[in-house]
Amino acid sequence: AQVALLDRNSEAGQESKAALDEQFEAQRTVFIQCDVTDQEQLKGAFKKVIEHFGRLDIVVNNAGVNNEKDWESTIQINLTSVIRGTYLGLEYMRKGNGGDGGVIINISSLAGLMPAAFQPVYCATKHGVIGFTRSIAVTANMENYGVRLNTICPGFVNTPILQSIDKEENMGQYYSYKDEIKNMMQFYGVMDPSIIAEGLITIIEDDSLNGEVMKITASQGIHFQQYSQTPFTSSKR
């Protein structure tokens, strides 16, 4: 495997690459500093990956923030960049465009499947990720893109985003409810990122998964959201 890491934080990106370099050959990873909200930077990052590795097989759109105060930025990072990253991935991977096929995994949240009190904009973006990914997955199947698209919806995970709950500059008018959110975290449990990675590998390796919504919780582990209605499809023109 060869992996490209994208992050706005150069220091964190270089540390991640260094950790991988200790286990694998250095040329098998590349770090590209990129602000996913900058359209040209994101396009350039995809181009650099192709130039470095020669091909693209897997895209994981997982940039995310929790910021109810600067809610426009939350939409840009959590939803707009996921849509743009998906379209860029399809541009390089879909078979009708000269690609070899592949898989795109968009990271949503359990907040994309239910209301999230005190985080309404975050909740809206995660609902959007699910709706977009499920819809484009149907299109990809109908149009024979050769690309599978799926969503992962984790519960609370032990990553830096949880620290935003304690910050007024993130929570804005909902800052006074931070203890209620912490109580929810304690009730539902906080997971180690490794179980999310396990779910990710499952989606990458199982060629039958397309348009699926994988849920990962502390109580039930890895399982899938069940939908009663099959999305409408028509025969290809």
Automatic annotation (TrEMBL):
It catalyses: (15S)-hydroxy-(5Z,8Z,11Z,13E)-eicosatetraenoate + NAD(+) = 15-oxo-(5Z,8Z,11Z,13E)-eicosatetraenoate + NADH + H(+); resolvin D1 + NAD(+) = 8-oxoresolvin D1 + NADH + H(+); resolvin E1 + NAD(+) = 18-oxo-resolvin E1 + NADH + H(+); resolvin D2 + NAD(+) = 16-oxoresolvin D2 + NADH + H(+). GO terms for biological process: prostaglandin metabolic process. One of its GO terms (molecular function) is 15-hydroxyicosatetraenoate dehydrogenase activity. It comes from the Eukaryota. CDD domains: ADH_SDR_c_like (cd05323). It holds the Pfam family adh_short. Its EC number is 1.1.1.141, 1.1.1.232. The keyword RNA-binding does not apply. The keyword Protease does not apply. InterPro entries: NAD(P)-bd_dom_sf, Sc_DH/Rdtase_CS, SDR_fam. GO terms for cellular component: cytoplasm. Keywords: Fatty acid metabolism, Lipid metabolism, Oxidoreductase, Prostaglandin metabolism. It is an enzyme of class 1 (oxidoreductase). Catalyzes the NAD-dependent dehydrogenation (oxidation) of a broad array of hydroxylated polyunsaturated fatty acids (mainly eicosanoids and docosanoids, including prostaglandins, lipoxins and resolvins), yielding their corresponding keto (oxo) metabolites. Decreases the levels of the pro-proliferative prostaglandins such as prostaglandin E2 (whose activity is increased in cancer because of an increase in the expression of cyclooxygenase 2) and generates oxo-fatty acid products that can profoundly influence cell function by abrogating pro-inflammatory cytokine expression. Belongs to the short-chain dehydrogenases/reductases (SDR) family. This is 15-hydroxyprostaglandin dehydrogenase [NAD(+)].
